[in-house]
Write a structure and sequence with these properties.
heterodimer; A: 254 residues; alpha/beta; Rossmann fold; six-stranded mixed sheet; four-stranded antiparallel sheet; 10 strands; 40% helix; 26% strand; B: 390 residues; alpha+beta; 2 domains; six-stranded mixed barrel; 13 helices; 59% helix; elongated
Amino acid sequence: MDNTKGAGFLEVENVKDNGIPLIQLIDIHKIYQMGDSEVRANDGINLTINEGEFVAIVGKSGSGKSTIMNIIGALDTPTSGQYILKGEDVSRMKGDALAEVRNRLIGFIFQQYNLLSKQNLIENVELPLLYAGVSKKQRRKLAMEALRKVGLEDKWRNYPNQLSGGQQQRGAVARALAGNPSLILADEPTGALDSKTSSELLNFLKQLNQNGNTIVLITHDRYVAEQANRVVGLHDGKIIFDQSVEEYRKQVKA
Amino acid sequence: MKVSQAFKLAIRSILGSKLRSFLTMLGMIIGVGSVISLVGLMQGVTNYIISTFDDLGTNMITVGITNTDTRKVDVDDMYAFVKENNSLFQGVSPKISTRYTIKNGSTSMTTTVNGVGEDYLRINNLELSSGRFIQYADIKNRYNGCVIGSYIVEELFEGKVSVGDTLKINGQVYEIVGIQEEESDSEEHSTDDIIYIPYTNAARLSGSADISSYVIAAHNADIVEQGEAVLDTYLYDILKNEDLYNISSMTILLETITTMTSMLSSILGGIAGISLLVAGIGIMNIMLVSVVERTKEIGIRKAIGAKKRDIMSQFVIEAALISCLGGMLGIIFGSILTRILGNAFGIEAAPSANTVLMAFGISAAIGIGFGYMPANKAAKLNPIDALRSE
């Protein structure tokens, strides 16, 4: 959409005065070769996200939202285009450099929680700090702090299978928070939760955002997307809308 | 991530599946155990053989000399030579060995009569049960005195004999001045079936004036070769002809035995080493399975920021740890087995420190070597695919 693109560029102009935006996706293409045909999973995506935003990326399966999540999460690199994360060009990085970016700048929340089953909760939360080379004492302290934020400080010794789904997901949030990342990237975080724990988690994410954390949430669920402040819609690898949550609600109703 | 952390992870993973870890280690245990016990046993056998030969006189050099009219080496020359080289030699004795018929009254038998010098007893570590040995005065005076072995005591005197009794050697009357302690169960043709007389008497009995054969004792078996060389130079300088003398000792035999046994232990160790290789492949196999099983875990770790070398070290250290633990258990198992088998075979066998160190080193190397491939596979996993796997 023309005005989306315009708004994006406008924002870039705006933030130049008070620093660079957190995320700049510039003409991102991701093309998979499937035999003879090529699949354009992302087909020219331009998106700018500033610090402190809570953005939901919505789309049906096959819309390219997983691909863009992988790129934003520095798990993958685009075929062409530029991805600048906190001033660093991530789009041409490889292996260990990407791992370092993920470790330093991004906290992941996955649909399946993805806690390591053979480690207890605090060890799971310590994991990003471990790979960041934080000392043992400091690790424990930061991890405990993160657990306190999600209200699981008394469960720190428990193993994931001793926790409920909601608790596990909160543990995963604690893990994402532990390294104090610039961006929290949540991939269908409520996908495995019942509606009650889902809304609890979403409220918690909102609260995190109000405390200044930048959150990007990928979902196919309209209700979940409505919890964000800004909603970006994807279809066939292209952004079809990029609007405030109020506009999104109106559009959905209509 | 620090190495200590990787160790902790590895220990936890090993303890997490104890049975599997143990079965993986089993190959290592058997491999290292068999290397250690086989090499230890062979070492025991070698030592046993060498000590057996030591009793037979591995420090002894036998010299045979054929004197000619113009070139001569006599007894005094040999004594002087040995005295001159007393750093190498502890003594010398002529030795004229002949078989004679001996008689006690109407009983007669044939035995070996050795004409020897007064030092023969000492350099051969022989002992007497009563009386004395041949002395310098006996030799000088050609005194008809003899020392008899225990087989002679039994056969010729039916056990009833004492110093001062007489017997006849080749028709001549000899006084028994000493009786040798039993050496080898008083059997025929053994070292107990023997009579010692002064070499001067023996020379006369055999009808030749020259002494043609000597035994020289080196201080120990290790300097025998050096002694032989010195002796060779000495004799060649006088006789000028290699055919006129010969020098022999057991060193060559001993060397041959040592070479053979060490070769055997290498072969046995090598065969046992094959089981180490098999054990290594077993570890690799398990680690590969483990990588597949833990793909999701690897994906999570990578997503959270684990670098290649973090994943790599986690798996390599786990493989090395399994291997080393197996190696250590194998060393214990092998040491016990060595002693049990040593006792069973009546050999004093002990695992050598070298073998233990080598076995441990090899097991660690195998762990790292065979752990590398699976670890590399794990480290190279794409985090997206790894996360998606169940």
